[in-house]
Specification:
The protein has 110 residues and is mainly α. Helix content is 63%, strand content 4%.
Length: 110
């Protein structure tokens, strides 16, 4: 875990994690869950952190170039989804189906 902690803390520029007083900043519970999922999947060996970091930079840059920058953790989530699809770990249709199921059952009481 120490290695990934260093890699995460060294993310710079547009990829750097939102912080307040040195602590990670999550505005919504889903943001913390998306963060934890990306870290846990990396730690389990499904992808190297540099692959995720590169995808995150791509997502942020694409949003800015399109004139529609994404909120940081929205870009984080899209990066995770794209990386999982590229690695063949999940299919787009399956991800869409699960997202719809969660949206349907989520009572938004977090």
């Amino acid at each position: 875990m120490a290695t990934i902690d260093r890699e995460i803390s060294r993310m710079e520029g547009e990829r750097s994690l939102p912080r307040a007083n040195g602590e990670l900043l999550f505005e919504e519970p889903w943001e913390a869950r998306a963060f934890a999922l990306a870290v846990a999947l990396n730690q389990s060996g499904l992808y190297p952190w540099r692959d995720f970091s590169s995808e995150l930079a791509h997502q942020i840059s694409a949003g800015e170039k399109a004139g529609a920058p994404q909120a940081y953790y929205r870009a984080w989530l899209h990066s995770l989804e794209a990386l999982l699809q590229k690695k063949g770990l999940v299919k787009s249709a399956e991800m869409q189906s699960r997202a719809e199921a969660v949206a349907h059952t989520d009572d938004h009481e977090h």
